[in-house]
Amino acid sequence: MRSICNLCDGQWITKYDGADETNIEPTKGGFSDSMKRAAVQWGLGRDLYDYPRVMIEGEHKYIPDWAKDMLDKLVEAFIGGKLGDRKVIILKEK
């Protein structure tokens, strides 16, 4: 992923970064990770790496209705500092 910035004095700065394909969505996952990494090069979105990876159990193309409330509660727990240093959270239908 390449990102470019034109400074006020007309100077151009270019930064590069990349990422491997992911196991879940190979092409999209690689692009998404590359976008995050490019943003971090400019000092944006560094906190995105602090969020845990959330996986929803089952075969779903979209977020199932049963998981939406759980995701909202996870956001509240993360903001409140109640998740600790968890790296992966797996949601399961009750």
What can you see in these coordinates?
This protein has 94 residues and is of the alpha+beta class. It has helices at residues 26-41, 65-79; strands at residues 2-6, 12-16, 53-56, 88-91. The chain has a two-stranded antiparallel sheet with strand order 1-2. The longest helix has 16 residues, at 26-41. The chain is elongated.
Compact description:
The chain has 94 residues and is α+β, with helices and mostly antiparallel strands.
Our count of helices gives: 2
What overall geometry do the principal axes of the alpha carbons give? elongated
Helix/strand structural class: alpha+beta
* N-to-C SSE string, H for helix and E for strand: EEHEHE
- Taken together, the total number of domains comes to 2
Strand proportion, as a percent range, falls in 15-25%
Helix content: 25-40%
Whole-number radius of gyration?
Answer: 17 Å
Amino- and carboxy-terminal Cα gap: 40 Å
Largest sheet: 2 strands, antiparallel
The average pLDDT is 79
Side-by-side strand order of the widest sheet: 1-2
Uncertain runs: none
Secondary structure tally: strands: 4
Helix and strand arrangement:
Layout: E1 2-6, E2 12-16, H1 26-41, E3 53-56, H2 65-79, E4 88-91
Parallel strand pairs: 3-4
Antiparallel strand pairs: 1-2
Main attributes?
2 helices; 94 residues; two-stranded parallel ribbon; alpha+beta
